[in-house]
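Section 5.1 Outputs to date
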Amino acid sequence: MAYTRKDVSTLTRGERRRFVKALLEIKRRGEYDEFVRTHIEFYTSDGEKGLRTAHMAPSFLPWHRQFLLELERALRRVDSSVTVPYWDWTKNRRATSVPWTDDLLGGTGRRSDRRVTTGPFAYAEGNWILRENLTDEEFLTRDLGRPRDPIELPTGGDLEWALNDPVYDTSPWDSTSRKGFRNKLEGWGSGRGSSSWRNHNRVHRWVGGAMVGGASVNDPVFWMVHSFIDLQWTRWQRRHGARYLPARPPAPGHPQRGRVVARHQKLPPWDVTPDQLEDVSRIYRYA
């Protein structure tokens, strides 16, 4: 029977408590840090050689769908009632609204070093020490909204701009693709600075701190962001009835040959293909 992922703003106090407790438990067991290591390992940019799966590639959506499922399975081994909620940033847009509450994720970081000092993931609580990171910091950091250089969260219109594109992805299948739902949702734009960050990428920048870069999984909000991103893929599928592209690997001689995953190819590090992840209605649904 399929379980339900809810809007985080609709969770009851008990559901919030159980979600946090399950996260802290898999962190205590060392399982959570494995997820951080996996994301760092598979965060491969356009400028690097080799296969790209997690970002800047068509497999951005199925890769993170499987990643979410793996995390959810770990949480549900602790408490079978727990699912990963989604954060709808088009509605809950303030740095003091859900999920930035003391009983859930805590708030922004302090001004001096951006260290999170409130909520269950605050460094002082002793339960959320960063052991896998791109820096030497052991504490969780955030800079919600970037007060010193303000940035706004994406709007419903920004999501519609992506959802209205009937094609899943287009050549050159990377961060420079101008058309296609995938990159419009992932959010790699032209130019520099905040105007070049759209949708998913802009949310990461708005949260700031640990959420910027390959170690972004260190902030539990990562999962709520990607749960909402996953919901957009579901909505796009329903709207257009279209499939993942490319359907076949790029032709020999194409610069993306061996660098992107086609619809029926394995999606490292798992034994699963993008087409097997297109319909997950038997596993979960969204409220």
